[in-house]
């Protein structure tokens, strides 16, 4: 068990190093324009949120289609999940 924990910690450390390297590369490419970098991160976050929202909506829509075929209205759980 301790060996597995150590292995996972090493993998996490390597992943963090890669993340830091990418962050440094992105900040150096943007130069001193921190606002430009922040805007690019904001746009990426918005894009990911949109994709997540679309996936969730598609999932709910599929559930409601199944309910419509069974001639029963969707339950509150189906609508909210």
Automatic annotation (TrEMBL):
Highest taxon of the lineage: Eukaryota
Region feature Disordered, mapped onto this chain: 59-81
Skewed-composition ranges (Polar residues): 70-81
Name of the protein in question: DCB domain-containing protein
């Amino acid at each position: 068990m301790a060996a597995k924990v150590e292995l996972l910690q090493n993998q996490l450390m390597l992943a963090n190093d890669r993340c830091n390297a990418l962050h440094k590369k992105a900040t150096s490419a943007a130069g001193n324009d921190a606002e430009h970098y922040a805007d690019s991160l904001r746009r990426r976050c918005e894009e990911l949120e949109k994709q997540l929202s679309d996936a969730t909506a598609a999932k709910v829509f599929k559930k409601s289609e199944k309910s419509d075929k069974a001639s029963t209205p969707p339950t509150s759980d189906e609508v909210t999940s």
